[in-house]
């Protein structure tokens, strides 16, 4: 039986990946990183900002000291906040789906590689503000996706919130990235992929179900996953 739903944020709840990408593309060249949009979506989507920068440094063989690393991440975060001020990119159909789960008293969590400040900024004033029982962000973990640490922590906090242990196999994760699906699989959770970022063919091997939008899903669909 379904006992909890955990959402990724960027690319699942909010169409904020293009804004993250733009902020990176505007900031990183001054630090010697020749990042392109194609590279970002192919190789770095789904990472935390810090992990993306570390992997980028390794892949492109561009060394970066700790002070420069902190500065680059600070400037990227600041630019993201500037870009997001004029738009609230909540994906169409998501509020209705989340409200349906909330009205059925399903514990809801967010597990994201984004910073908590970025998540709060987008949710503030939206229909989804205050709906999620638990939010785990990049600030809460030492290892980002594809490591399962974030999902394990989110489920632990959801269990504390409801006052009972929620088994991983009774939790459905909704993701749009390959890294996120891998992390949820390792955590032992059921996985629904949405094709907001990657095509179905790439997502299907890591997912229990692939949909084009959350509007395709019913509560019965999610319950059915948890009895397989």
Structural account:
This protein has helices spanning 17-27, 37-44, 49-60, 66-84, 94-103, 116-123, 149-162, 178-186, 200-203, 219-225; strands at residues 4-7, 108-111, 134-136, 171-175, 190-194, 209-211. The chain is of the alpha/beta class and 228 residues long. The chain has 2 domains: 4-15 and 89-225, HAD superfamily/HAD-like (Rossmann fold, 3-Layer(aba) Sandwich); 17-84, DNA polymerase, domain 1, CATH 1.10.150. Strands 3-2-1-4-5-6 form a 6-stranded parallel beta sheet, with helices on both faces. Helix 1 crosses helix 4. The chain is globular. The model has no long low-confidence stretch (mean pLDDT 94).
Layout of secondary structure:
Layout lengths: L3 E4 L9 H11 L9 H8 L4 H12 L5 H19 L9 H10 L4 E4 L4 H8 L10 E3 L12 H14 L8 E5 L2 H9 L3 E5 L5 H4 L5 E3 L7 H7 L3
Parallel strand pairs: 1-2, 1-4, 2-3, 4-5, 5-6
Quick gist of this model?
This protein has 228 residues and is an alpha/beta fold. 45% of the residues lie in helices and 11% in strands.
* Strand percentage: 5-15%
Q: Biggest sheet, open or closed, and with what strands and sense?
A: 6 strands, parallel
Measure the end-to-end span.
10 Å
CATH uppermost class of the largest domain: Alpha Beta
Shape: globular
Structural class: alpha/beta
Low-pLDDT residue intervals, each spanning 5 or more residues: none
**Which value, in Å, is the CA radius of gyration?**
17 Å
| CATH third-level topology of the largest domain | Rossmann fold
Number of helical stretches of at least 4 residues: 10
Side-by-side strand order of the widest sheet: 3-2-1-4-5-6
């Amino acid at each position: 039986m379904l006992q909890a739903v955990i959402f990724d944020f960027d690319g699942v709840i909010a169409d904020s990946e293009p804004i993250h990408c733009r902020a990176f593309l505007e900031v990183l060249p001054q630090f010697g990183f020749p990042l392109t949009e194609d590279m970002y979506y192919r190789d770095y989507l789904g990472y935390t900002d810090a992990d993306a920068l570390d992997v980028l440094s390794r892949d492109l063989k561009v060394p970066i000291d700790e002070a420069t690393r902190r500065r680059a991440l600070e400037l990227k975060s600041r630019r993201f906040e500037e870009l997001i001020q004029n738009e609230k990119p909540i994906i169409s159909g998501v509020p209705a789906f989340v409200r349906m789960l909330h009205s059925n008293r399903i514990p809801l969590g967010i597990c994201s590689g984004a910073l908590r400040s970025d998540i709060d900024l987008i949710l503030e004033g939206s229909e989804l503000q205050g709906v999620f029982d638990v939010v785990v962000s990049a600030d809460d973990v030492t290892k980002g996706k594809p490591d399962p640490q974030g999902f394990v922590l989110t489920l632990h906090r959801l269990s504390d919130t409801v006052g009972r242990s929620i088994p991983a196999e009774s939790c459905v994760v909704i993701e749009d990235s390959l890294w996120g699906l891998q992390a949820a699989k390792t955590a032992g959770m059921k996985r629904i992929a949405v094709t907001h970022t990657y095509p179905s063919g790439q997502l299907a091997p890591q997912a229990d179900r692939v949909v084009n939008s959350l509007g395709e899903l019913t509560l019965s669909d999610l319950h059915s996953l948890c009895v397989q």
